[in-house]
Amino acid sequence: MARRALKLASVAAAASGIYLYGNKFLDPNDFGVVRVGRAIATTAVITYDYLTSLRSVPYGSEEYDFLRSQVHLRSAERLRELCCANRGTFIKVGQHLGALDYLLPEEYTRTLKVLHSQAPQSTRQEIEQVIREDLGKEIEELFVSFEDTPLGAASLAQVHKAVLQDGRTVAVKIQHPKVQSQSSKDILLMEVLLLVVKQIFPDFEFMWLVEEAKKNLPLELDFLNEGRNAEKVAHMLKNFDFLKVPRIYWELSSKRVLLMEFMEGGQVNDRAYMERNGINVNEISRNLGKLYSEMIFVNGFVHCDPHPGNVLVKKCPGSGKAHIILLDHGLYQELSESFRMDYCRLWQALIQADMKRVQKYSRRLGAGDLYPLFACMLTARSWESVNRGIDRSPISASEDVEIRSNAAAYLPQITQLLNNVPRQMLLLLKTNDLLRGIESALHTRASASSFLNMSRCCIRAVSTYQRSKSHSLYRRAQISFTEALSLWQINLYELFLWLKGSQLGNWVIALLSWMHHST
Asked: Is 101 annotated as catalytic?
């Protein structure tokens, strides 16, 4: 079997080379023999390691679990080294995998998370070249000052602080010069290698990753599209006065250069920063939940890269209010109406612990007989907690360990599910895991208020949809009344929870208890 793996890897190398050299749309010299060879060699070594290390160990034994964990870790480290060496698209895909905390083995997610801080940096000469080609001017002509050291570097671009001739301080996002030309070739290489690995491991279902990269990378590489997304979400969520989205300066923006209003703050997972600056951690967590519930359930237009570097918090000196600053608007998921309604109703069923409806809407979203696993993936809770009600009790440390362990134990089933669900679901799962990571860092995970906010948005979304489909004035009034009643019940329950946790509530309960005993 191991010989077969190496033979298939060699065939893949030859096939990849023939295809790439024969394809008139690809320049093999730009692709680079070293770049291709590195990816093929890493894939072959990882495949060989899995085939040989676990071959003679009984499946399910403690020794098997230990060895599998070691192979996962070695493979993840090799994959990380490949991403750092090949850069660009490889880092982007590695970051995506690192964000799937409760869907992939912990050895992979923990190892690949560092890619967010190990992105490459372009040189000053490369930056000058991109600005010259896209804006037709030199840096000195556009800016009074331009900081050479980037504020941050990501897989596709980096951001510099600068001051315009009129004195405005701006953030300048500049695309790495070679990413555009290499991205399609990188995806092609990944596709060939994943197909080869699937021949060796039939349960290996990661083609969804390539499909997502094919669809999303061209959009992320178009900074004009990112600017439009920023303006759209700012308008869409204008009722949230705590949300700040940087203004776009269109006159100095292009597909590879984006000029924005400069905004700064602490990262959203930095609890110590919030405490130092008098920012209420629970309020930030609650408001972040409100933003995403509104985006997902009500509007169906979702910012899908909320890692801590893209979500900042800052206290306004004048008003004393804490603001959430949303950055990097390149990756959004638009949800179809039918998908959004099924997703709303599934979350309502999960919050209400209605297992019949959980099964019904999970199946409608492509989970099939794996609906219990799907429910656990969505909520990052155990099946026991899902049955009991995910809002009944916060997640415990032991349950969190159980969920992470199950990600390794049920990897074939998880990858099968990811291959079967609608493509819209994939970025939502990634977004869910990134938001849970923020909540875990702030110690606000699974608070009752987050589920209440989700319930409100689901009720509003479903009611709006039902009204749009009804032609009867009486029926629309009935829907509106039911909606108002449901929202009132949630407000009442939230008041009860607040009283229960407050000093005033304790006094009221003590008074009622005293009156009861007196009578």
From this structure: no
